[in-house]
Amino acid sequence: MKPFLTIITTLTLAITAQVMANPNIKDSLVRVNSTQQRWNTSQPWDKLAPSSRGALGVLLENKHILTTAEMAANSTYIELENADSTRTLPATVVAIDYESNLALLAPGNGNAESFFSALQPLALGKPAKIGDQVDVWQLEDNGMPLITKATIQGADIVSSFTRGHYFLTYEAKGSMQSATSSFALPVIQDGKLLGMLSSYNSKDQIIDIIAPEIIAAFLADAADDDYQGFPSLGIGITNTVDPNFRLWLKLPEDMGGLYITSVRKRSAAEKAGILKGDVLLAIEDKVIGRRGYYDNEKYGRLFWSHLIRGGHQVGDEIKITLLRDGEKKEITAELTRSGKKLIPNHMHDQAPNYLVKGGFIFQELSATYLEAFGSDWRSKAPLNLLDAFINPEDYEEGRNKLVFLSATIPTPATTGYERIRNFIIAKVNGQEIADIASLIKAFETPDADGLHTIEFTDGQPKIVYLDANTSDTIDAKLLQRGIPALSRQ
Amino acid sequence: MIKLSSAISITLCILSTLTPSLAEQKEPLAPAANATAATNGIYSSIVRIEAATQVPNYREPWKAGNFSGGIGTGFLIGPNKFLTNAHVVSNARRLLITVHGSPQKHPARILHIAHDCDLALLEVEDFTPFEGLEHLEIGLVPKLESQVRVIGYPVGGNRISVTRGVVSRIDFSTYSHSRADQHLVVQIDAAINPGNSGGPVLQDGRVVGVAFQGLRSADNTGYMIPPPVVKRFLKDIEDGRYDQYVDLGISEFTLFNPAMRKKFGLEANAPGVLVASVMPDGPCDGVLEDNDILTELNGNAVDAAGNVLIDGEKVNMNEIVERKFAGDEIKLRFIRNGKTMEKTATLKPFPPAKMYSVQYGVAPRFTTFAGLVFQPLDRNLYAAHSFKNTRVRRLFVHYIDEAIFKERKDIVILTRILSDPINTHISNHTGKAIESINGEKVTSLDQVHALLNPEETPEFFVIKCEGLARPIVIPSNKAKEASERTMRNYGISTPYRLK
């Protein structure tokens, strides 16, 4: 009798394991359908044509749904849909992090009780090891799960949604197929959420997965109402592989180190006294090599920035070891958010500020405006604006944002000015222009002759004049012709 | 007039043929050797010019350059004076002239060459065979819609070719040979083809233009250099030297805007154009100021668009300066702060403008050091390397209007790093402008050469590029060896050329 019993027991165990693995996870998946719309950079009062995309989100505790920032950014409407498409529910964004490409959604107006009744929250799992097998979940149209096995090949620091922001990412090998709602997908290990798929390279069959450490930090930050974001140190670096360069820096052979090429103003690094030209040797006693990698106990060699953005919060103090003039130096830096930039890196969910005056269109410069010049915008965009983007420190004095004349609508007030565009504004009516708000204020006081004086920092001519009465009349006409508002600030 | 913008799109094409095939080079044997003026008439005075050229290599400046050649046309305008285009004979190492119907090739040389208006005057070593040939006379600007004949040696055969056309436009336009100059141009609808370059355009037996460029994007549009430009060239060289065009050195802005006119107190029909900027060190520096309103040039009223009336035609006011020479004075009448003033500007050449003109007949300057190649920025270098770096592009575009030329005779660019153990880990520095060497600000190629070859060597050569915080560091004790090694490995025959 005994052997028979044993067999039955094992069988039951096997069945339970399978039941636990599959249907439960399906019960935690939600389709996220997002309609997104960006602003028109050349006519900033307009939005561009909307577009839609679908992804899978994961139900966490408190009826919160995790998805990528790419899904939630610039959204006009987000809808949740269950796997078999029998129920839908509008959603709102609780927290969004454009840098790490994560977003947390909550149910909006609607029958949340019935939507969530058949769903189960999923827990966030532990970090994976290199070589682990993981499941990437997709849902077919009919609601059937489509599971792709993938093997984690490595961990790297990768930028996914926002240029210049790098986070811990697993790179897994697996052959995926097209299916609906696949813009972002959950990756599961041992019945728990491991990470979110942020991109798939079909040529190399490499899957990028946002790591659980990053998701955990995001969720911890998003737990209260005040989402802060990931901390930053605020330095630019270059490697110290060149032996001649090392000799000049007096860097001993047994040291690694990164050469600090820039220290951003008002950054944690500047406050801590880090100088351009210092060599970054270690953070929290983790020694940084010549190319910027350190030994991570879990993942092997990882890029140094993970020491800042991988496990720390804004306000944390970290120990930094530097080499300055050939001598070692230890300092403590309090991590902060990177400060407001003169020229913002992106304009997600932000309507561009502008002012229309008599036919002149003034805007605040952003990277988004420059990128609208096409894939080769680095050579196609106006040279003076590119220069400001690359060297903002030359333009920061007296400015919050860089205001420029983006285009000229031909009107009776702008006769003869039709070709003026992309000039940076210095002063209007004698007042320095820090942003669109100060520009609007400056236009309130034309001179005694009823003329506005507009001074450019570059361009020819350097000053143009605008008749205050004529431009007011024209502004009224432009409103009649369909421009919804003359300014946004 | 010199155009200071870097963003001139070139749609014009030059009309001399390049490297004719062997078949085309064969001379016909049939014509009699003693063809004379009597049988050929005016055709004998229109000659075929064969140029063997050596074009400098701006990418690898130590190399001899490419040997090639081309065919153009020229014509006799006086005793041993053949007029042609500068681009027909630019970079020439050997010039041969052939008369229509004769197999004999006569060696020729350049007397004067004017790259800014694409004209050149040649002479043959022995003029005897040409004695007695008719000298073509330069006439006047042909009228619109009048018919002209273009004669030359275009592609498609070896013998002389004649086409007819009508004058379709008279305009101020870019001369594509230097890419930076604008002068009067006459457009005709005759088929002008490569090889026609330098040939005469005739009307009533007189030369009314020199065929010189075409338009790639349109059929049947040919351009010729009109008599005022030709005559100015001939007058300029009378003293035995070509002095180049002179320029007022201002940029103007049209005064069409009512608010602008109100600000300057101008009546609706009052003349005057706004001075938007005055070129530093130019002829008007210290004479005119920004925001002056220029109302008269040598007694000619300047309208709100910057045009003047000459011979009953409205033309750009620069046309007045166009006909002047270095040292000539120009009377300027202008309004400053509501007051009318009169001053005189003395026209003068402006060497820094060379930055924007294609250079011919000069070997590229450079210096090398431990596998690093340094070259001064100019139009030729820019065309050869198409720099992407924003700083370099800015330095180029604003070299004159921001008076960068006053401090920096050359903008020195690190154009190439020839891989060697000493420099193999340097990245991102290629295509950047050199800011300083061992702390000293870089102002010319000569200075860079001197700083890299000092009498007393420092421990390190520290070379900083603009916009890059990380300098290039070369230890002195290894530099000499590396320089010699890279020269040997990369076949560099001369380490530098400073002139």
Can you give a write-up of this model?
The complex is a heterodimer of chains A (489) and B (499). Chain A is built from 12 helices and 28 strands. Chain A is an alpha+beta fold and 489 residues long. Chain A has 3 domains: 1-224, Thrombin, subunit H (Beta Barrel), CATH 2.40.10.120; 235-334, PDZ domain (Pdz3 Domain); 354-488, N-terminal domain of MutM-like DNA repair proteins (Alpha-Beta Barrel). In chain A, the strands form 5 sheets. In chain A, strands 21, 22, 23, 24, 25, 26, 27 and 28 form an 8-stranded antiparallel β-sheet that branches. In chain A, a hairpin with a 5-residue loop joins β7 and β8 (145-158). Chain A starts with a helix and ends with a strand. By secondary structure, chain B is of the alpha+beta class. Chain B folds into 3 domains: 4-239, Thrombin, subunit H, CATH 2.40.10.120; 250-346, PDZ domain (Pdz3 Domain, Roll); 365-497, N-terminal domain of MutM-like DNA repair proteins (Alpha-Beta Barrel). Chain B is built from 11 helices and 30 strands. In chain B, strands 23, 24, 25, 26, 27, 28, 29 and 30 form an 8-stranded antiparallel β-sheet that branches. Chain B has a 6-stranded antiparallel beta barrel with strand order 9-10-11-14-13-12. The two termini of chain B are 27 Å apart.
Overall domain count of chain B? 3
**In total, how many beta strands of chain B?**
30
Fraction of residues in helix of chain A = 10-25%
User: What is the CATH first-level class name of the largest domain in chain A?
Assistant: Mainly Beta
> How confident overall, as mean pLDDT of chain A?
91
Q: What is the fold-level CATH name, i.e. the topology of the largest domain in chain A?
A: Thrombin, subunit H
Overall radius of gyration of chain A: 27 Å
| Main sheet: strands, sense, barrel of chain B | 8 strands, antiparallel
Summarize the biggest pleated sheet of chain A: 8 strands, antiparallel
Head-to-tail CA distance between termini of chain A: 82 Å
The name CATH uses for the topology of the largest domain in chain B is: Thrombin, subunit H
Unreliable runs of chain B, pLDDT <50, ≥5 residues? 4-13, 18-39
What is the largest interface, and how many residues per chain?
A-B, 39 and 36 residues
Distance between the termini of chain B: 27 Å
Oligomer: heterodimer
Our count of helices of chain A gives 12
Number of domains of chain A: 3
